[in-house]
Amino acid sequence: MRRKLLVVFVVLVLAVGVGIAFFARDSLLPSTFDPGDRYASDRLDYMGVIYANRSDMYDWRGGYSETTDCPWGRIHNGIDFFFYNDSEVIAAAPGYIEDVSWRENPDTTLNMYNIYVAIRFNATITLRYTFEPFTHIVGDQDRQLSMLTVQEGNWVQKGDMIGRFLAVEDSSHVHFGVVCGNEWIDPKPFYGPSDLAEILEFIHTYQPTWDLSYPAP
C-alpha cells in the first residue's frame, strides 16, 4: 500500500512539474495575440526582404516551390539567402519573437546546426528564419546564437536587425519562410510591391529567368 501511495505521489509531482514548465513557456506569449498599438495585425501584405544590403549576399540558388517543376528541381518550403559572414539579417515584418532556439542535425557532419528565430505576426502567421552556418565545428551554434540581437519575448518592427549571420562553409545560408498555422506557404503574396520588385531584381542578377516561388500547378 505504501509503495502504491509513493508511486501516486511521484506521478503527481512530475505532472505538476511538467504543468509548471508548460505554463512558464506559454506565459511568454500573449493569451490572445494582440500587438497593441505597435502595428495592425489583421493583414500582412507589406512584407519586406531580410537583408539590409544586396552586397551582403553572394548567390541565389532557390526559392519556394511546391513542385519539382522549378529551376532547382525540388520541393522547397522557403527561400534561401546566401549571406556573407557577419552580414546583417533583418525582420521582414513586425511581430513578437516567439522562438530563439537551435538543434543539432543528427544525420550530417557538415551542416551540424540549425539556429531558429520565429517572429509571430498575428494569431496565424509566423515568419521563420533558420540560420544554417554549414559547419562541422562543435560550439558554432553558440557562436551564431551570440550574434543574434533578439531574444524570446522581444517585439520588432519591419527592418529591425535580428542578428548577424555566421557563415562557415560555402553553402551556409538563412532559410526563410512564412508559416500559416503549422504549414509553410508561398511567401510571394505577402510581399509589398516595392519589396517584391526588390527581391526579384536581386534574383535576376544571378538567375535572369527564375521566379521567387513556384506553387503547385
Question: By helix and strand content, what is the structural category?
Answer: alpha+beta
Strand content: 15-25%
State the CATH architecture of the largest domain. Distorted Sandwich
Order of helices and strands: HEEEEEEHEEEEHE
Q: Helix proportion of residues, in percent?
A: 10-25%
CATH topology (level 3) name of the largest domain: Glucose Permease (Domain IIA)
Overall average residue pLDDT: 88
Number of strands: 11
Number of continuous helical runs: 3
Q: At the fourth CATH level, what is the homologous superfamily of the largest domain?
A: Glucose Permease (Domain IIA)
What radius of gyration results from the CA coordinates?
Answer: 20 Å
Structural domain count: 2
Shape: globular
**Cα separation of the termini:** 65 Å
Structure characterization notes:
By secondary structure, this protein is an alpha+beta fold. The chain folds into two domains: 1-31; 54-214, Glucose Permease (Domain IIA) (Distorted Sandwich), CATH 2.70.70. The protein contains three helices and eleven strands; from the N terminus they run αββββββαββββαβ. The radius of gyration is 20 Å and the shape is globular. Residues 4-30 have low confidence and may be disordered.
Sequence-ordered SSE layout with sheet pairings:
Layout: H1 2-26, E1 64-65, E2 79-81, E3 88-90, E4 95-104, E5 113-120, E6 125-132, H2 140-146, E7 155-156, E8 161-164, E9 173-180, E10 183-185, H3 193-206, E11 213-214
Parallel strand pairs: 1-11
Antiparallel strand pairs: 2-9, 3-8, 4-5, 4-7, 5-6, 6-9, 9-10
